[in-house]
Amino acid sequence: MSTARELVAQMTLEEKCSLLSGADFWHTRSIDRLGIKGVMYSDGPHGLRKQDQTGDHLGINDSIKAVCFPAACGTTASFDTDLVRALGEAIGTECQHEEVAVNLGPAINIKRSPLCGRNFEYMSEDPYLAGEMASSLIQGVQSKNIGVSVKHFALNDQEHRRMSSDSVCDERTMREIYLPAFEMAAKKGKAWTFMCSYNKVNGEYASQNKWLLTDLLRGEWGFDGIVMSDWGAVSNRPKGVEAGLDIEMPGSAGINDAEVVKAVREGRLDEKYVDICCERLIEVHNRYLEHADPSTPWDKDADHELAGKLAADCQVLLKNEDGILPLKDSEKIAIIGEFAAKPRFQGGGSSHINCFKITSLLDATADKGVAYAQGYHINSDDEDAALVAEALEKAAAADKVVIVAGLPDSYESEGYDRKHMRIPPNQNALIEKIAAVNPNLVVLLYNGSPVEMPWVGLAKGLIEGYLGGQNVGTANRAVLWGEINPSARLPETLPVRLQDTPCYLTYGGEGNTAVYNEGIFVGYRYYTKKEIPALFPFGYGMSYTSFAYSNLKLSADQIKDTDKVTVTVDVTNTGKIAGKEVVQLYVSDRESDVFRPVRELKGFAKVELQPGETKTVSFELCKRAFAYWNTTIHDWHVETGVFDIQICKDADDVILSAPLTVESTVRIPVTYTEDAIFLDLKNDPKAMAVIGPMMKASMSLFSDEAEQDAKSSAAAEAVSDEMASAMLDYMPLRTLISFSQGKMNHEMLQGILAQING
Ligand code: BGC
User: Fold this and answer.
1) Which residue of 279, 339, 624, 698 has the lowest C-beta tally within 10 Å?
2) CB neighbours (10 Å) of residue 338?
3) Residue with CA closest to ligand 1 atom 7
4) Is the minimum distance from the CB of 43 to ligand 1 under 6 angstroms?
5) Which CATH superfamily is 547-663 part of?
6) CATH classification of 300-492 is 1.10.10.10, yes or no?
7) DSSP 160-171
8) Are strands 316-320 and 226-229 parallel, antiparallel or unpaired?
């Protein structure tokens, strides 16, 4: 068989350029005379949206009947890498059956604001969590010889003006917050393909951003797959080819291919870039074609069951006062809310699945003899007096009430951002009224991103159900009646109100420019630093059992930044039933010259424990766990010092902590100029060795005079020691020239600088 390079060598320029865009909405082109076959790409990411008739990227036209799994907002809440791997395997199998080579997902942009319309599709506000979960999901899909497309690369953190907005973000923030999940997807997940985002990144469209697509993704991270455009993201195609955008999707009916041909003919684009894109496309498509097996069975009913099983582990128990949950069969239960009959279990837009079956909470509890009242209309903000009256009557007659509330489709979707964090007013009002007639109230939420909960104090039980996929009802029933023990944790902070959120002041940007002003302080990194209480913090979630931690041990108490350290901790199930705990490890830098978050998640593990059982959980930490991105060396850097290794219940609650000293093996090079201040020189032993004696002598040249003056001045008493030393510390070297009254000149100072700078 010919290699990709040999095949490309046989092609005309026109043939090569024809491969650089889709044949239609979903297929790539073939070249029959060379035996090159086109393949199909399909959405993603929560199931299969395969359109075999009219194509669109908005989820408008029908797709084949398929299975909708829980959305990423929920699956990430499982903190369970095995769970998302199983999800990936199921999606990969479905794709094999349907002859889809690449499933367009996972979507792993950081949840910068709860307002982002697409947060339901994204994983977390934390890059480490998003990166780990994405990598396992990718490995699951790709184990079936199906590719993923990691999207939307990069900084696509809002829907507002999504195809033109320029995400303006500083280097450190990109490296620490917005890029690591993509980095892990490339390095650990070994994704076959990436999808570039619509937006610009620091002034250049992602679809033609050479730094992003080539220098970083391929050069630094070693990505060997293909980059496709988001649907319609191409602006200047020849520029994109040179930048490393292999294929334009959907195709532009040959118009942009012709632009590329022209650019090569006119000498504006080196043909080698066209060749490289073609070689990569052939190689990656062959990974699928060589193992394509449409005879792979797809058991939809089995996947429906799997969707329900996964969803059960994705619901976060947030409140359980007086042990109101789990519900008991002996109790009279009223279920209120139209969502109980017509669940919202997926988001709108390109991820929208045409489900072959839907199981609502009412369907799933048909054998439980519950009373039901609709309570509100999903698609209206107005109260319906008759529905409210019926709901109150049924609630009053019950032992306990479960009200299902949340965001209707119109409140959050791909394509636009939310304007507020509220659920419809008629639902809020109903919850308050029900609480007045029956205090034994459980609220179950269906939503893709955080909502304000003005009634939170009135609900004894609270479950964040996220968007649970087509078998959501079975999952809800399992958690409500304790058929499974809830074990999910929040992959994002639930803030009290929108005004508390990190980018409240500037989210969405002005015109086409969105400046990431809050820098690295995103999600819990912001709330913990500012000590703004969250409604529920990142990592929070309850269980029907209890856990205790002990024996936190480090393999060393002092390491170099080139070493690794092993952390172990014992976890015991101290309750009466089996359960799963999410062990969370955070690292906190005690002292730093740069701004750092209070703590950052650097490890997590999900462990299942029988009552009374203890397991030892182990983590390995290396340089990245302690490092920040240094903009002088443009690399990760660890400052020598003490770090606290913290085992936490959530981002706010430290259970055990142990100190670790890490010594840096890297010296950040500094070049001092005449503008360098004494304080920085004082803190640099190497500089002080040279300048220390000189500084003393030089200072006395003028400080004697200054002292004389000060003594004779009536203001002498006002000059405190602190003020005097601060004044000296903050003085630039160049002031030696003016203050020494001619005893120091520029030549002498340059001589000193030459010595310090070595
Ligand atoms: C979305 C992508 C999706 C593509 C194809 C775009 O509008 O941003 O996430 O994969 O359409 O449907």
Assistant:
1) 624
2) 21
3) 57
4) yes
5) Immunoglobulins (2.60.40.10)
6) no
7) TTTTT-EEE--H
8) unpaired
| Nearest atom of ligand 1 to the alpha carbon of 49 | 12
CB of residue 104 inside a 6 A radius of ligand 1? yes
Closest Cα to atom 9 of ligand 1? 350
Please work out whether the CB of residue 57 comes within 6 Å of at least one atom of ligand 1: yes
Q: Rounded distance, CA 643 to CA 659, Å?
A: 6
The CA 130 to ligand 1 mean position distance, Å, reads: 19
Give me the residue spans of the domains in the chain: 4-61+79-157+174-289, 300-492, 547-663, 678-757
Instruction: Ligand 1, residue 44: give the atom nearest the CA.
Output: 10
pLDDT of 542 strictly over 70 = yes
CA dist 520 and 176 (Å) reads 7
* Model pLDDT for residues 190-213, shown as the tens digit of each residue: 999 999 999 999 999 999 999 999
**Could you tell me if the CB of 249 is within 6 A of ligand 1?**
no
Binding site membership of 230 for ligand 1 (Cβ less than 6 Å): yes
Residue 111 sits at the vertex; the CA angle it makes with 161 and 43, to the nearest 5 degrees, is: 70
Query: What's the whole-model pTM score?
Result: 0.96
Classify the phi-psi angles of 2: left when phi > 0, otherwise alpha if psi is within -120 to 50, otherwise beta. beta
Marked catalytic residue, from 80, 230, 246, 652: 230
Q: Is the peptide bond before 495 cis (omega within 30 degrees of 0)?
A: no
Determine the pLDDT at residue 725.
83
The beta strand positions in 472-594, using DSSP E, are 513-515, 547-554, 558-560, 565-573, 579-589
Rounded to the nearest angstrom, the distance between the alpha carbon of 220 and the centre of ligand 1 is 26
Q: How far is the CA of 349 from the centre of ligand 1 (A)?
A: 8
CATH of 4-61+79-157+174-289, one of 3.30.70.3340, 3.20.20.300, 3.30.1460.10, 3.30.450.20: 3.20.20.300
- Closest atom of ligand 1 to 162 CA is 8
Cα of 76 from ligand 1 centre, angstroms: 20
Each residue's pLDDT tens digit, 471-481:
999 999 999 99
Segment holding 752, helix H or strand E:
helix 746-757
